[in-house]
Write a structure and sequence with these properties.
Layout lengths: L5 E5 L4 H12 L4 E5 L6 H4 L1 H4 L5 E5 L5 H4 L6 E6 L10 H21 L4 E5 L26 H17 L5 E6 L1 E3 L6 H10 L2 E4 L9 E3 H13 L6 E5 L8 H11 L5 E4 L2 H16 L10 H8 L7 H6 L8 H15 L2
Parallel strand pairs: 1-2, 1-4, 2-3, 4-5, 5-6, 6-10, 7-9, 8-11
Helix pairs in contact: 1-8, 5-6, 9-13, 10-11
């Protein structure tokens, strides 16, 4: 691919986007990223100066404002739409802007500029909360959570499918909880709670967590770029064979970081009430941050089960990172990048 035939990555300075950008450049592609500003975090800080201008282009714009990113689509052959608002306590309008309006803009510009393919990163949350022993796959209907992140991601994913009917070629991925080097939110938040000495658990700690290591997710994304069979298909990408649960994660992190802590076992309904009240107090600016979010309570309070048979069949994708080795890898990254 020559330098005038760019791959565009939204959210290119974030956890998944930056990992994807590095992989694409290592494979010989030229990558243009869209970022909201030039005030980079430490993870991205040195990368532009270490990369040739013919391989990395940085475009500043707001993806929920179509006019501000239109020029970013010049000479673009593929688009990876990774950017999203995940923070579960932000106002709903912010989620609508970041996850729905932005996705609509990306789809419209892909069509306008005749982009070869859009690869959209959705979430396994779009399939809703499970009942009994329900196993989700790509044919499962979307179900709302009454939570802003999951519900706006459903809207955005449906938009991508609507644009397929207008001629947009795309691939949709539904990853689980993403972790690994570069993760500054998910594992750090668990570790910080453990370091407080007390870890609340409201599922008995036994509900299965469907995680995916960042390198395994990026493997799947690259496969969509190189595999024509993935066009207008969607794939669940997570470790569906692992029986890892929150208690396992806590015990592993506690051992790796030599942290002593105790579990506090709460009924689900008590955890939910605490989270709901703390969110309200945060929104009313009575407290600096909520104790926990209702999204977190739901995420850890149900036993989610998924099938990745389709990804394994269509893409020849597989899990390569076992959870414990992935956490050891994250620990090494976290300690070397902690400031």
């Amino acid at each position: 691919m020559n330098s005038k035939n760019w791959i565009l990555v939204t959210g290119g300075t974030g956890f998944i986007g930056f990992g994807l950008t590095k992989r694409l450049i290592a494979l010989g592609y030229s990558v243009r990223i869209i970022t909201r500003g030039l005030n980079y975090d430490e993870a991205f800080k040195n990368f532009p100066s270490e990369t040739s201008n013919s391989r990395l282009d940085i475009f500043v714009g707001e993806i929920h404002k179509s006019s501000s990113i239109k020029r970013a689509f010049d000479n673009v052959s593929y688009v990876f739409h990774v950017a999203a608002l995940v923070n579960s306590v932000s106002p709903y309008r912010k989620f609508e802007e970041a996850n729905v309006t932005a996705t609509k803009n990306i789809c419209e510009l892909c069509l306008e500029f005749k982009v070869n393919k859009l690869v959209y990163i959705s979430t396994c949350d779009v399939f809703g909360l499970p009942w009994g022993n329900q196993v989700f796959d790509e044919s499962s209907p979307y179900k709302t959570w009454s939570e802003p992140y999951a519900d706006t991601k459903i809207k955005a994913t449906l938009l991508v499918k609507d644009f397929q009917k207008q001629g947009l070629k795309s691939t949709i991925f539904y990853p689980g909880w993403v972790y690994g080097p570069g993760d500054k939110v998910f594992m750090p938040s668990i570790l910080k709670q453990l370091q407080s000495g007390l870890m609340p658990i409201w599922d008995g700690g036994k509900n299965k967590l469907c995680l995916v290591h960042i390198s395994d997710l990026i493997d799947a994304i690259i496969m969509a770029l190189q595999n024509g069979k993935s066009t207008n298909e969607d794939f669940l990408i997570l470790d569906d064979s692992s029986q890892t649960n929150l208690e396992d994660i806590c015990n592993t992190l506690g051992s790796l970081f030599d942290v002593k802590f105790k579990f506090i076992h709460l009924p689900y309904w008590i955890a939910y009430i605490i989270s709901w009240i703390s969110q309200k107090l945060f929104q009313m600016k009575f407290i600096e941050k909520p104790i926990m979010s209702t999204t977190d309570v739901k995420s850890f309070g149900y036993n989610f089960k998924y099938s990745t048979k389709k990804a394994k069949s269509f893409l020849d994708w597989s899990v390569t990172k076992e959870i414990k080795s992935g956490l050891i890898e994250w620990k090494s990254w976290y300690e070397s990048n902690r400031h």
